[in-house]
Amino acid sequence: MNKVNYSKELDKIMDALKKEGRTPTLLLQCCCAPCSSACLERLRECFKVTVFYYNPNISERAEYEKRKAEEKRLIAAYNRQVDEQDFTGMHSTAAANRIEILDCDYDGQAYEDAVKGFESCPEGGDRCTRCFALRLGKTAETAKKNGFDYFSTTLTISPLKNADKLNAIGQEMQERYGVAFLPSDFKKKDGYKRSIELSKEFDLYRQNYCGCKYSRGQSFHKENVTEL
User: How far, in Å, CA of 195 to CA of 158, rounded?
Assistant: First the structure.
């Protein structure tokens, strides 16, 4: 079976939208401002993006609120660019759309319930798969309920996340909830590199673990790769 290039699949969809002159709505699950920076810069050219801040995996409320505040600060900065039509140094153009945010209450128990029995799994294993399914399932359900055209996630921008697995889960949730999943592999086309550049430009808080207490307790990070 040929490996799917999800980056190219996204390109095809975006190219088609530009030709058709359509601007569909997208509910985008975002884990943090650094992860979403490059994704939003790109996606706002073709979609009316609403950030869905749903991250029950984050183990501490203070950390959750800190990341959420940074996400809101980034969105506000991007919206100022649109309002003022000033994209100096950015990849976006005058076609860029404003970004909305759909906030969620902190619900760490939902994550603990989802990964119960899988706590000792290695990073990137079944515990993470269940976490991805929890977050993408909630995103798809919310997208369906609120009439969005697409749903997706920024998680594929991280070199430490399996894009094939994330896209497979997204497609499963598409079938379950009946709303289109937007495929991606945002780390491709220098997406991860761009996220680092934007994090520096906006002076974004960049954490060194995904958010859960298990990832923080496991020293699996390479010295030259910071988890977004």
Answer: 10
- Helix residue ranges per DSSP H, 115-190: 126-145, 163-177
> Amino acid identity of 113?
D
8 and 186 Cβ atoms separated by less than 8 Å? no
Strand, coil or helix: 100: strand
* Cβ-proximal residues to 12 (8 Å cutoff; 6+ apart), any chain: none
To the question of pTM greater than 0.85 for the whole model, the response is yes
Residues 120-144 pLDDT 10s: 666 766 788 999 999 999 999 999 9
Q: How many C-beta atoms lie closer than 10 Å to residue 225's C-beta?
A: 12
- All structural domains of the chain, each given as residue ranges with its CATH number in brackets, are 23-217 (3.40.50)
Q: Are 57 and 67 in contact (CB under 8 A)?
A: no
